[in-house]
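Annual report, structural modelling task.

Input specification for the adenosine-5'-diphosphate complex:
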Amino acid sequence: MADRPVSSEKDNWLLTVNNLSCGYGEVPVVKDVSFSLGQGDIGCLLGPSGCGKSTILRALAGFLPISTGEIRLESATISLPGRTMTPEKRRIGMVFQDYALFPHLTIADNIGFGLRHQSKADRIQKVAGLLELVHLQDLANQYPHELSGGQQQRVALARALAPEPTLILLDEPFSNLDTDLRRRLSLDVRDILKTLGISAILVTHDQQEAFAMCDQVAVLKDGQVQQWDVPYNLYHEPTNRFVAGFVGQGGFIPGTALGPDTIESELGVIRGNRTYNWSSGTLVDILIRPDDIVHDPESNLRPKVIEKTFAGTSTLYRFKLSEETEFEALFRSHLDFYLGEHVPIRVEAEHLIAFARSH
Ligand code: ADP
Ligand code: MG
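The model returned the following structure:
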């Protein structure tokens, strides 16, 4: 999955968003956003709070008119400026952060809510199947307040799946849950969607969740897509400084280009597996991720430990080599160094990421 290329030539996209802009009143929020999602794929909108993720979902769901561009679902154009197909006609299901279940309805009735127009027999059979799918068979006659947050979110998912939508939109669905449950439920939901072959778009500000659950991820900033790519590429081939900083851990150290794939820095000469079209002598900022630094007793590079965060199997160190050169390193926790200690290290960064300095 990680290495699957994002095809730009596919013409049977399930969802295509072209040059979408929208906002509230005169205020533009989403600016010129484009991406496409294949049938059965799970896409993600990832970005800091306020960058416009939920606004894009509202436009996809048909709750918000668009001011430029178009949204296509299967073969239909569902949004154009001045023409918005109503939400009910779109066959799009939604799951929200706060579950939004009907408190006075049982779990079974919540799930069957969108099936009111089907025969009772069909409805009962369908609801039973969905209860099983989300592992809540035993709770059919309970009420939402009797369930845990994780269980309520499963109900919300089953309810959204019931009318057999073409696409499911999930807006920060796990944000109210604690870390462990969040991780487990996100993998469960991925399994369920993949089993059914249903396409989905997940909105989150949590990159772990985005990476664990999604096939492709759009990194957003200020209402604009910075990069739409598979998680592996976002991490190893970020297209700009924002993506590099937002995705994964890491920071920048200064350097000078020696050649298309080689940079000199205080951490020595670093050579990576990609080439840049800068000229020699260009001042650059080099992305150093905590796993790019290895402990090497033979090394003459001995930065000082200035911060240390124990995390069980590993420890995250912050090192300082000079005023300009600080970076982090993740070591197995039996490599135990004290604050102020000078530790021999070297860089092992096959995926060299650097950006020409703009100032
Ligand atoms: P995100 O989901 O990424 O956190 P939103 O899409 O909710 O961000 O919001 C993007 C921007 O639009 C924010 O600046 C927010 O204040 C503004 N916004 C959101 N909803 C409304 C609204 N109903 N009316 C006016 N402005 C809004
Ligand atoms: Mg939001």
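The domain at 249-356 is CATH 2.40.50.140 (OB fold (Dihydrolipoamide Acetyltransferase, E2P)).
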